[in-house]
Amino acid sequence: MTDHTEHRLAVIGAGVMGTNITALATGHGVPVVLVDVDDEKLAAARLTVRQKLKHAQLMGVLPEGRGRGELVTTTTLADVAEATTVIEAVTEVTEVKNKVLTEVGGLVAPGTLVISNTSCIPVDEMATWVPRGDELVGVHFMNPAYLIEMVEVIRGTGTSDATMERVTALLSVLGREGLVVNDAPGFVINRLLHPLINRAAMLVQEGVASAEVVDGLLEGCLGHSTGPLRTADLIGVDNLADSLVVLHERTGDPECAPCDLMLQLVRDGHHGRKTGRGFFDYRKAAE
Ligand code: NAI
């Protein structure tokens, strides 16, 4: 068992998930170095993390008496070198993750836990990009990570027992429970969820029902707390399309090729909540 003072996190990628994970960690007293290539993303992230921490405080989900972990933001990837754990949360594009993890592998000391928050890329594939693949594990944090207590932990074929123990200790410090699955494209959650969202979008594309009606049916009749298209807007339609491409390439399942409507939303810059519009329009609600 470890306590929060033994952990120093580096989170790479200051987007939707990087900011969520940073809020979760700093809220649990763990210091974070947050890295991104984009200075504007880092400036926005500092604000977003503060807002999420305020929300977490209001929701009563932060531990008492630990204080906040320090947050440092940087565009220098080498600043991850002092971390006890590196969490990669960059864009879901194989080449981008390959480049980042290859560089991380050259920067961190043996014994550093390397986590990828990938949605769909298999852990075994990523393990070949780092010098010590046994120290790499997938942790699929849910969005919003600072509120949802369960995570999907993906054990690669070569992930060591020691790495599994260390990730369990970290998750416990962060108040998270992990359910462990074996490696596969999309693992369990996204192998199920992403094709569902894609099909929901296809139904809108075919004119079978509007986005409101598709989500209304799944929420009202099947008891889903959030319909698939609102979920898509929360995830980010751009990220979802990238993840579907990864799934399609690796499974060959035609249901995983992102549908035209989704690709059109991406081209139009309607990426969901983060841009104010996706399958639904959030701009009025924000006024
Ligand atoms: P995002 O698009 O919001 O953020 C990605 C960030 O990575 C951007 O800020 C970008 O500037 C940064 N980035 C790109 N290349 C970089 C590099 N070379 N070095 C440093 N930073 C770089 O994406 P999001 O949604 O946060 O997704 C991140 C990862 O988390 C993806 O693998 C995604 O599949 C996964 N994920 C996403 C969830 C969601 O609900 N959005 C849920 C669970 C996992």
Automatic annotation (TrEMBL):
Pathway of action: Lipid metabolism; butanoate metabolism
Gene Ontology MF terms: 3-hydroxybutyryl-CoA dehydrogenase activity; NAD+ binding
InterPro entries tied to this protein: 3-OHacyl-CoA_DH (IPR022694), 3-OHacyl-CoA_DH_CS (IPR006180), 3-OHacyl-CoA_DH_NAD-bd (IPR006176), 3HC_DH_C (IPR006108), 6-PGluconate_DH-like_C_sf (IPR008927), 6PGD_dom2 (IPR013328), NAD(P)-bd_dom_sf (IPR036291)
The keyword NAD is annotated on this UniProt entry: yes
A biological process term (GO) from this entry: fatty acid beta-oxidation
Domain 3-hydroxyacyl-CoA dehydrogenase C-terminal: 186-282
Residues engaged in binding NAD(+): G13, A14, G15, V16, M17, G18, D36, E92, K97, S119, N143, K274
Pfam families xref list: 3HCDH, 3HCDH_N
Keywords associated with the record: NAD, Oxidoreductase
Chain ranges of the 3-hydroxyacyl-CoA dehydrogenase NAD binding domain: 9-183
Chain positions of site Important for catalytic activity: H140
Origin superkingdom: Bacteria
Family indicated by similarity: Belongs to the 3-hydroxyacyl-CoA dehydrogenase family.
Record's protein name: Methoxymalonate biosynthesis protein
Organism: Amycolatopsis jiangsuensis
